[in-house]
């Protein structure tokens, strides 16, 4: 780009003040500031390294002998560079058995406004090429023969002309590729589900055939194999008529139809499986298992509650036993004390008052113990009881026994 400024600036040179001019420019979109100094009587500069079809801001100022700016810069001037031929495109191939398709992206360096694209193609190592203009479309496909080898060249156009070409080579397949990721899952004692990953065969529908047979010693003949065909776009299917607890081998292959003829691909790797499905294994579905777990939890909680009640009752019983200092005297013991001894009427009265708070041991002696300080007994009753029994209570051998009450 050539920049020219006002020639009247030459008057400053005569006065010896101005030695030259400094031209600065930077991209409007942002970036580094560039400059160029022109000395002497020059009033124009050639700017290089600019990006095609880009806007720049340009300013000019006078400089002295030391290179320092004299005065101020001129008002910025915005200029857009001209278009140039575009850069190359990036091609993505889509290959099939009888058709080749390509797509491409806009050039990373368009250098202008893209007006159209041109595609040239032909068989490999052939000088005869066919060209097609796709306009602004970025995809193209052509029908070819099986196993053919072709080259494709794509280039973009701007008003400056055609851009850099991009060429790729591609070969069509002769048959569908091998099926992968075959998975077998038993459904019941006589059927199983087979799934696989779908093949990427553009422009053609693909059907899949599952071949299976039981494994035996020696291996079974091929005419004993069974096959099930699943139409497109199936990626799984169910095979039936299996025998429970039997080992089977399974393979899957793809088939396409080209001009009325079926073309089959190679079989997948062998997959072995045992039809181990058992009805008993499905007797308790997940919902019943949850119910069983809940019932178990309830039973455990009830058992804990019953155990807690039993422990509480046992505790209360032991507490009651600890709170009773004495056991209740038997009828015979009370009768002996009241009728056979020589106790006073006061002792009878006290006995009735004490009720079950007394205990009598009748083993060669009679002994009465009273809970002291409880109810209406008090110290007075204690004294009466002690005095009366010291006088009247005797053992069977005639000796008197003092009571510690």
UniProtKB/TrEMBL annotation:
PANTHER family for this protein: CYTOKINE RECEPTOR (PTHR46957)
State the GO CC annotations: membrane
Family annotation (InterPro entries): FN3_dom (IPR003961), FN3_sf (IPR036116), Ig-like_fold (IPR013783), RTP_Phos/Ushers (IPR050713)
On the tree of life, the source organism's domain of life is Eukaryota
The record's annotation in Pfam families points to: fn3
Q: What is this protein called?
A: Receptor-type tyrosine-protein phosphatase F
Keywords assigned: Membrane, Receptor, Transmembrane, Transmembrane helix
Q: Does the keyword Transit peptide apply?
A: no
Q: What organism does the record attribute this protein to? A: Geodia barretti
């Amino acid at each position: 780009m050539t920049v020219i400024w006002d020639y009247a600036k030459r008057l400053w040179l005569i006065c010896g003040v101005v030695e030259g001019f400094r031209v600065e420019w930077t991209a409007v979109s942002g970036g580094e500031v560039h400059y160029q100094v022109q000395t002497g009587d020059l009033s124009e500069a050639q700017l290089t390294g600019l990006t095609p079809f880009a806007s720049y801001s340009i300013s000019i100022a006078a400089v002295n002998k030391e290179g320092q700016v004299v005065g101020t810069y001129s008002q910025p001037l915005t200029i857009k560079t001209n278009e140039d031929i575009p850069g190359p495109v990036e091609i993505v191939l889509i290959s099939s058995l009888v058709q080749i398709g390509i797509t491409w992206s806009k050039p990373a360096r368009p250098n202008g406004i893209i007006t159209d694209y041109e595609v040239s193609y032909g068989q490999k190592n052939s000088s005869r090429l066919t060209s097609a203009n796709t306009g602004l479309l970025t995809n193209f496909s052509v029908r070819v023969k099986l196993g053919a080898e072709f080259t494709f060249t794509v280039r973009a156009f701007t008003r400056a002309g055609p851009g850099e070409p991009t060429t790729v080579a591609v070969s069509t397949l002769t048959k569908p590729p091998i099926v992968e990721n075959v998975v077998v899952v038993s459904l019941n004692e006589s059927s199983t589900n087979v799934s696989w990953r779908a093949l990427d065969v553009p422009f053609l529908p693909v059907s899949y055939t599952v071949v299976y047979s039981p494994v035996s010693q020696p291996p079974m003949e091929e005419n004993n194999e069974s096959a099930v065909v699943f139409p497109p776009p199936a990626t799984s299917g169910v095979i039936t008529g299996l025998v429970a607890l039997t080992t089977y081998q399974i393979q899957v292959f793809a088939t396409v139809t080209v001009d009325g003829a079926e073309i089959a691909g190679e079989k997948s790797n062998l997959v072995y499986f045992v039809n181990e499905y058992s009805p008993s294994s499905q007797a308790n579905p997940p919902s019943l298992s949850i119910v069983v777990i809940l019932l178990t939890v309830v039973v455990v909680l009830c058992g804990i509650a019953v155990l807690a009640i039993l422990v509480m009752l046992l505790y209360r019983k032991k507490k009651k036993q600890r709170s009773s200092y004495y056991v209740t005297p038997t009828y015979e013991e009370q009768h002996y004390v009241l009728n056979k001894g020589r106790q006073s009427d006061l002792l009878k009265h006290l006995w009735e008052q004490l009720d079950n708070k007394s205990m009598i041991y009748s083993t060669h002696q009679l002994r009465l113990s009273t809970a002291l300080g409880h109810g209406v007994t008090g110290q007075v009753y204690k004294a009466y009881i002690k005095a009366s029994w010291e006088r009247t209570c005797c053992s069977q051998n005639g000796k008197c026994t003092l009571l510690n009450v």
